[in-house]
Queue: 4 jobs
Job 1
Amino acid sequence: MKTRGEPERRCIVTREVQPKGGLIRFVVGPDGAIVPDLAGKLPGRGLWVAADAEALAKAAAKGHFARAAKQAVKVAPDLVRQVEERLARQVVDLIAMARKAGLALAGMEKTKAALVSGQAVLLIQAADGSVRGRSALRPPGDASSLVSCLLGRELGLAFARDSVIHAAVLAGGLAERIRDEAQRLAGLRGKDFGAPSEDAAGDVEAAGEGLRAERQTTE
């Protein structure tokens, strides 16, 4: 839903107008290559595409960038993968920044405590965590307060661990940025991203929690 004063842009593929937060900006580089501009700060006319894998794939394959730019352009064959990887890295880096600022924590018990106390504003759960384990925790607010577009190993990078399944972000300046960037990443990855079988999910969950328990006893 659009908030007051939030700028909107039109997707060059769907032609729908929506808030900028739900789109990805691209520009044409000096060499004519299409360049993702996730921060929205590169010079040049912005070419906006909905944060959706299908829309971005169409933009890359069906000439939408060239038509919108009104010139010949070069589009990397793996553009969708590039954008997804950059978005994932950006979300991980933001969570890591929150951790270093004392505004993010990991582990089932710490996350649960932050949720119960009302300190947590975002619940982050690895997409490949078990369904049972993830359902044991409820997000602190509406659907946007749940981030589930990262794998356990990706979330682990934010906490300098091999794998993390549950984490929470506390109120602070980074929470909104993490939520917004995670929503764009979720749009690219889709709702079924990372979902393992029940058995595999249980193995991942047990391995991650076991690793954390071992580290906690040695700290």
Note: The domain at 82-218 is CATH 3.30.1330.30 (60s Ribosomal Protein L30; Chain: A;).
Job 2
Amino acid sequence: MYRLATNPGVSFGWVEGRVVFLDTGRDRYAALPADLERGFADIVALGGQVEPQAPTTRRLLDTGLFHLGTGSQMLRPLNRALPSHGLEHARRRLSAIDLAQVWRLVAEARRMVRTRPFASMFNDPAIDRHHLTAAKPIAALAELARRFNNTRALVPIAPNCLSDSLALRHWLARRGHRCDLVVAARLEPFAAHCWIEAQGIVLNDTPERIATFVPIAVSQ
């Protein structure tokens, strides 16, 4: 039995009734023609089981998003609920050391976005070099995120969801905290967005602002 499987670095989700793919290996978002999308939906309902020579299978393979496998792993979209909680705003005394560190992290992240492929940022090996844990108290992680957010507001670099999320992820990782980088999309018109989550809390956005987006990829 053959199964259709996504290529490494490819994930997908159903956004407003349409399937949207993130292909980190090719730095692209992708969709399918309506007729092929219907065939793909049928294949997903079967867990990815396909006939290798079927026209729909061949067309899907030609997109570069899939390959044929013989394993038992099911073909499934990302199914991740949006966080319902964010950080409460709290005024904090700003630190010159924090300002220097956050400024450097944001500048480095902006440079990465311009010069590095998305896959190398999404699954950044530099993050894995830190001793990370997801079990630390959320209060400590939230306080660190507030420090970053308050300080980021003083950095004279235009906000950008990707570079700011990368910078926050490195800020937390250097302090031993694991978090998730979530990439989401919406349609009509198409827009992509990303943010940082930990333990069900969005750390650099608000539940209200992300409510119209559907997660399609997550990097831990």
Note: The helical segments are 34-45, 55-62, 96-115, 118-122, 125-128, 138-152, 161-173, 207-210.
Job 3
Amino acid sequence: MFTLENTLLKVMVNPTGAELTSLFHKTPELEYMWNGDPAFWGKHSPVLFPIVGTLKDNTFYYDGNPYHLGRHGFAREKQFAVEDNTADVITFLLESNEETQALWPFPFTLRIRYSLFENALAVLYEVTNTGKADMFFSLGAHPAFAMPLVPGTAYSDYYLAFDKIENAPRWPISKEGLIEEFSKPLLLNSDRLPLRKELFQQDALVMKDLNSTIISVRSEQTPHGLELDFAGFPFLGLWAAKAADFVCIEPWCGIADSVISNQLIEEKEGINKLEPGGVFTRTWSVRVW
């Protein structure tokens, strides 16, 4: 486990999956991350790569060949190397090898950099195509924040605030983990979504192409909360395990297969294409108070 620290924050990251496990604000002495209780969900903030969500039949086709890959890909289970580590910045590296290319036939490097800036944590993803052909991939974050955040408050005391008014449907997820063909209403001329555990009884709330680029967790019962900036991520997932005391706010550059997917990776919704030698970067950040 690696620790980053400044005058306000203390952050812990596990090199397995380069996974953020703790985001602690020293002044109010508050832990913002879910504790990873395996009775509900044993992770904290897995990295989703090289796919986000589920493939139809856990299979995609490329260059006429089938490949099989489980939900959210393999990065979250891999051991990352540490490239550099200072008091408030750390960079992790994952490189493709024979094992990864049996599942995902594209050579790559994936770097993940965690940086502290006062009361904020920035998470940079950098994907490089090290192969000789175009590379296809998806990439996403899955941070789980503790809810209720403050002792003496309840889950339903909190709400999600979007920085712009939204008319945004949700895209339901089938029992096989695929995106259904038709959406359902969610946000109707509103910038607020009250948190309640019943929201996630039918899996995640998936949204596409929001106007907002910032989402906050707030409550009228406490001055403490958080703000997540996801500019550059065209999809957003919101999720919690059933009856669990957390909410995941998930910026995605990619999405699960549709129930009507043809399973061709080049034609997958939300897929990113990177030319040989190309570099793809995205950053999300979370500010806590």
Note: The mean pLDDT is 97.
Job 4
Amino acid sequence: MSPPPLPPPLAPRSAGIAEYVKHAFLYRWNMLLFLGASAAAVLSPWPDAVLPLVGAAELLYLGGLVASSKFRDAIDAKAYQDARSPQQQGKTQHGKEAPRSIQEILGTLPPEARRRFEQVRARCLEMRAIASGVRGRTGNAAEPGQELSTPALDRLLWVFLRLLVSQDALSRFLNRTNIEEIRARLAETKARFEKAAGGDERIVRSLQDSMAAQEQRIQNYERSQNNFEYVRVELDRIEAKIQVIAESSVNRQDPDFLSSQIDSVTESMQSTEKAISELQQITGLVDEMQEPPAILESDLGRVVES
């Protein structure tokens, strides 16, 4: 299955070398050790010799930390959060307005994916309304089945939304990668390598490294293709599970039956949650909430016009 059309690219986010160095230097343990070592050097009999060593050790530490991709990613994420407006960062009250992060996520999705999520959520609300009518509720406390199903549906909808984000990110990557061009470059580099064999060692090493890089790019593309297909299948599976739980409340299933259905869904979600976590480096979506948001009880409003 070919990926959907390419949506507009996302703007790159980078804190910059100055921010990396600043955060590395101001790390509390570094400050403690650096100031302590500096004070000890000043009080030592040979401050002129010891102080340069302290400075060299500090530069070595800063250079090593800034060179770490994990450290840079963490600072980039912090800078992005700090740059968001107060309106974007603000939290809303439960049951009145959807968490701002949910609205933002929906706004980043292409229209087709956004409509799919909204239709699935609307189906859940429709089934809940029908179930309420069937039971003839008059404002009393919620039925046991509803108390069980609402958190489960919120979790499934949250996973469903994150899968849609993963699908969109993988689609953009696949559309922007010309795999045939990469394979052509690899074939050309292999030919040059065979021709250069036995010649200048620098050229040979450079060609070897180039081949390894092209092969890694091909592996990344093929892995993304597999992930794209997995996410597509998982979206269909999770959507069906959502429908099962939502429709079970209409059929007046007893709480024990509904609880068993939810438990089976929860167990089957473990591999999905793990896959989403592994895809976060590609999607850029980092879970800020420890628990799934109250999607059914929230007012999502009108996100972005299609």
Note: The longest helix spans residues 201-248.
